[in-house]
Amino acid sequence: MKLAYLFSGQGSQFAQMGMDLYRTNATYRATIDEAATALQVDLTEPTVWDDPAQVQVVILAMSYAIYRQLTTQLPAPVAAVGLSLGEYSALVASGALDFAAALRLVRDRSQYMATAGKQHPGKLAAVLKLNPQRVTELCEDYAGVYPANYNTARQTVIGGTSEAVTAIQPQLLAAGAKRVVPLAVAVASHTPLMESASKALFKRLQAERFAAPAFPVISNTTNRPFTVEQLPTTLANQLVKPTHFQQNLLQLVQNYHVDTVVELGPGTTLSKFAKQTVPNLVTYHVDTVETLQQVQAALQVRSE
Amino acid sequence: MADQQAEILTKIQEIVANQTDDLNVDDIQLTTSLKDGLNLDSLDIFEIVDALEDEYDIEIDSDEGIETVQQLVDFVQQKINSKD
């Protein structure tokens, strides 16, 4: 088995997520408690855990807590990819970023994004069943709208000002898009509207120390493995450049010969993208006690 | 009519089970809620509708108001029959 981990981004969080793991899994609980200490917030309090303002740190803590549990039981991964926020979870898992430092970094990143979003309110929409190249070309003709996430061959998310995202819709449909689905977010991540957040994050990253990752983490932005030297630049650019998750998945298979992926963190978005991009990949996800047990049973890991 | 319903259900089960390795055919019954029962979001539902359109050569303009598997089966059946 050639295993890669996929680390969830935002968008699939659910209320009370991870509480069953917290109650029953010692490693998981210890990791969440560590996060609570690093952030000085009570993460056992549902009003804190489910607070939209905390969602980025919560997903990081949850994803890494599951990783810690699984990594003692599964073979070492040959590579990892996270989507957007998920890159921080992947970098922590690889040892490139310290967990406590990453939590504070992600907390600040979400504040920079919220501030930039207030300065330049934006909108995201998923464009379905139109060639990503065509979506890119059409965006080039419109001021204020950009490709934000190249998710699969059939799904590209565009982002920009509310007016521009609305204005481009008829063109996308005329070009053959099956549907344009607005996403419920107020911040146009991965577009130039995040310029001020990107700059603030770059400055903030100067204060951090990084270590060489134990396994390659493929960047959404460059589609190359993160390096210690380029880490601040790549993570800052990530906020203003599109993510290339489809390319990341293809690279996992082509360059790293991955045949099995396990998504860590809330939801199944990345497993579904993986299935669509590489149908013969074996996909799992872990975000509950039940799904953890399924993966442990399926991959026949030794019990603790 | 019942046969046609059963056939559409089988097709839906096949499509949904193919989306991830997490769902089994048995998880998908007529009374199952697409959103809460199967954890599907609007983009997932689109993928299912899209596959059904190709399978039955029908056009589904909007999946609004479709919440359960039964409603989806009824909707597809109605589209197929209005085509003839």
Walkthrough of the structure:
The complex is a heterodimer of chains A (304) and B (84). By secondary structure, chain A is an alpha/beta fold. Chain A has two domains: 3-117 and 192-298, 3-Layer(aba) Sandwich (Malonyl-Coenzyme A Acyl Carrier Protein, domain 2), CATH 3.40.366; 122-182, Alpha-Beta Plaits (2-Layer Sandwich). Helices cover 47% and strands 14% of the residues of chain A. In chain A, the strands form two sheets. Chain A has a four-stranded parallel sheet with strand order 2-1-7-8, with helices on both faces. In chain A, strands 4-5-3-6 form a four-stranded antiparallel sheet. In chain A, helix 2 (26-39) packs antiparallel against helix 4. The longest helix of chain A has 21 residues, at 99-119. Chain A is globular. The two termini of chain A are 21 Å apart. Chain B is mainly alpha-helical and 84 residues long. Chain B has one domain (2-83): Orthogonal Bundle (Non-ribosomal Peptide Synthetase Peptidyl Carrier Protein, Chain A), CATH 1.10.1200.10. Chain B has helices at residues 2-19, 42-56, 69-83. In chain B, helix 1 (2-19) crosses helix 2 (42-56) and helix 1 (2-19) packs across helix 3. Chain B starts with a helix and ends with a helix. The model of chain B has no long low-confidence stretch (mean pLDDT 85). Classes of the chains: A alpha/beta (304), B mainly alpha (84). At the A-B interface, helix 12 and strand 8 of A face helix 2 of B. Chain B: One of its GO terms (molecular function) is acyl carrier activity. Chain B: It is found in: Cytoplasm. Chain B: Pathway: Lipid metabolism; fatty acid biosynthesis. Chain B: One of its GO terms (cellular component) is cytoplasm. Chain B: Residues 6-83 form the Carrier domain. Chain A: One of its GO terms (biological process) is fatty acid biosynthetic process.
